Amino acid sequence: MIDLHITTGPQWVHAVLSDFDTFLLDHAACERKASAMAMTFVVRYPDRDKIHEPMIVLAREELAHFHRVFRLCMERGLRFSRDQKDPYVNALLKLTRHGRDAEFVDRLVMAGVVEARGHERFGHIANALDPGPLKSFYAEITQSEARHAEIFIELAREYGEADEIDARLAYFLEQEAAIVARLPARPALH
Questions:
Q1: What is the tens place of the pLDDT at every residue in 94-128?
Q2: In total, how many domains does the chain have?
Q3: Is the pLDDT of residue 4 over 90?
Q4: Labelling 78: which of 21, 25, 96, 123 has CA 20 to 30 A away?
Q5: Domain with 114 in it: what CATH number?
Q6: Does residue 177 contact residue 4 with C-beta atoms inside 8 Å?
Q7: Distance of alpha carbon 93 from its chain centroid, rounded?
Q8: Considering the entire predicted model, what is its pTM?
Q9: 3 in any annotated domain
């Protein structure tokens, strides 16, 4: 598992639990975007055969997660609104290099870091919830995020030199920690 350089503080967990409905809506949006992002890899890089099967499987899993969170939202009578920009993801995207090959590797590494953060944060939520179906769901999601993080880094290693991937992972982890440190705690995954 990717070792994040900063841990999420209890103020974030408090913000989520204080407005769980808003968190659920954000979580649904994140799952839908994650599914679309995985398919974007397939469409944007048709010549990278080794990513197709894992990205299609990942896209389907993320879409299934979206469907489950969608159902939770509907059970609570929540309404979706237009997507909000994700300051965390947008800040990370600005760090990707230009050039098709460099950007490809950076996006894989970045996605691995994002999934690692999801693993950590969903784990906090699972630990904070009372026993029941919701706690079980978030425990399950936590494990999925760990697998997804590993998939992205493994795929990056298929297409980049080990030293390059290690350096880019270290860079993104350092930058990600700075981004997390300056973002306010809010009822959103990021």
A1: 999 999 999 999 999 999 999 999 999 999 999 99
A2: 1
A3: yes
A4: 123
A5: 1.20.1260.10
A6: yes
A7: 13
A8: 0.96
A9: no
